[in-house]
């Protein structure tokens, strides 16, 4: 049987760019390895109490930790060992983590990561994920600073996510298309399963937490109404699908064709999702898959971040769906424009 592994694919891509030093390849590969460890723990999450894991000391003599802390530790350890990454910004840590060992402090890249996305879904066996952004550092030498992270998403070198779902999938882009790899658990390899991913021509799904309806901008309410209208020619009414794990919602919508919305509201104008490690990586993938990501008015990737954990509204999916929502935001909710 002929197949291509993630590692083979990364090496092959690197060979297409003679100027590439191999550092990004190593970094991506390390993320793939950490994802396998996290996948193993996610898969036996429910066994904690049965097997006496939780709160116990494990064989290495360490306390068993909650899964999002475990995932955070795994990714940090993987990024530390390689030496290509000089700092990490994680949802789990208030401040950036400086990797200032002799090998790491000269690393060219910084990584922003949500180690476990949708973690409230773990106990009910619903899909969860990991999302990451890779930027080239801005500072030239010395220990990294927060400035290295405060770059608009259009500067991203690579971004991706891992979805721990009915199977485990790693999807990433370096700005030359989007490729997806499915983990074969029997051999522990990510195999290329979704080459050159693109949004379908037509989408019929909208994903939004409608419980917040009364707080939504009028433009979003109008868009929901549009999705629910009867119009055979445009396949409406669409279907609602909302998992509550952004990675899972965005991945399904990429495969099936649909828009994911987490808007700003009258309670929180910036929405909920974090710009650096939730909105930007998803926006980069969406654009590379022929789609669009907007905060309702602006391209997500053009937003200049001011803080590590800054939030932003997001409308992401096939271009025509996002543009329809943007048109209604502009017409009915101009007061929600940020800047
Ligand atoms: P996290 O588990 O990393 O905190 O993220 C949860 C996020 C995201 O995955 C999801 O789309 C969103 O929160 C769901 O929020 P609501 O419960 O407000 O719909
Ligand atoms: Mn998250
Ligand atoms: Mn998280």
> DSSP strand (E) fraction?
15-25%
Query: Span from first to last CA?
Result: 53 Å
**Which ligands does the model contain, each kind named once?**
2,5-anhydro-1,6-di-O-phosphono-D-glucitol, manganese (II) ion
Structural class: alpha+beta
Largest sheet, strands/sense/barrel? 8 strands, mixed
Name the helix and strand elements from N-terminus to C-terminus, one letter apiece: HHHHEEEEEEEEEHEHEHEEH
Number of domains: 2
State the helix count. 8
Number of strands: 13
Biggest β-sheet: strands ordered side by side in the sheet: 2-1-3-4-5-6-7-8
Give the mean pLDDT: 93
**Rounded radius of gyration (Å):** 20 Å
CATH class of the largest domain: Alpha Beta
Can you give the helix content as a percent range? 25-40%
Task: Output the CATH topology of the largest domain.
Answer: Fructose-1,6-Bisphosphatase, Chain A, domain 1
Spatial shape: globular
For the record, what is the CATH homologous superfamily label of the largest domain?
Fructose-1,6-Bisphosphatase, subunit A, domain 1
Name the CATH architecture of the largest domain. Answer: 2-Layer Sandwich
Give the low-confidence spans: none
């Amino acid at each position: 049987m002929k197949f291509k592994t993630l590692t083979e694919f990364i090496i092959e891509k690197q060979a297409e760019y003679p100027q590439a030093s191999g550092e990004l390849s190593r970094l991506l590969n390390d993320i793939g390895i950490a994802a396998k460890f996290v996948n193993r723990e996610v898969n036996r999450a429910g066994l904690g109490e049965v097997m006496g894991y939780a709160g116990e000391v494990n064989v290495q003599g360490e306390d068993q930790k909650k899964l999002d802390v475990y995932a955070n530790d795994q990714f940090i350890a993987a990024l530390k060992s390689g030496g290509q990454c000089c700092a990490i910004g994680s949802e789990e840590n208030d401040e950036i983590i400086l990797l200032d060992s002799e090998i790491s402090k000269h690393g060219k890249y910084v990584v922003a990561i949500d180690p476990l996305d949708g973690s409230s879904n773990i106990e009910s066996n619903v899909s969860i994920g990991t999302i990451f952004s890779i930027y080239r550092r801005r500072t030239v030498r010395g220990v990294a600073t927060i400035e290295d992270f405060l770059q608009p998403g259009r500067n991203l070198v690579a971004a991706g996510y891992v979805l721990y779902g009915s199977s485990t999938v790693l999807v990433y882009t370096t700005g030359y298309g989007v490729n997806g790899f499915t983990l074969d658990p029997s051999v522990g390899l990510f195999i290329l399963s979704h080459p050159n991913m693109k949004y379908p021509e037509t989408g019929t799904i909208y994903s939004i937490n409608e419980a917040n309806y009364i707080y939504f901008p009028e433009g979003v309410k109008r868009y929901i109404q549009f999705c629910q209208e009867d119009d055979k020619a445009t396949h409406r009414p669409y279907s609602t699908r909302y998992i509550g794990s952004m990675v899972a919602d965005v991945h399904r919508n990429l495969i099936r064709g649909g828009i994911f919305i987490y808007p700003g509201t009258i309670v929180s104008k910036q929405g909920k999702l974090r710009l650096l490690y939730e909105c930007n990586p998803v926006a980069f993938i969406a654009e590379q898959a022929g789609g669009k990501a907007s905060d309702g008015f602006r391209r997500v990737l053009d937003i200049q971040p001011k803080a590590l954990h800054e939030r932003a509204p997001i409308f992401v999916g096939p271009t025509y769906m996002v543009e329809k929502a943007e048109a209604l935001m502009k017409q009915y909710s101009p007061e929600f424009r940020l800047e």
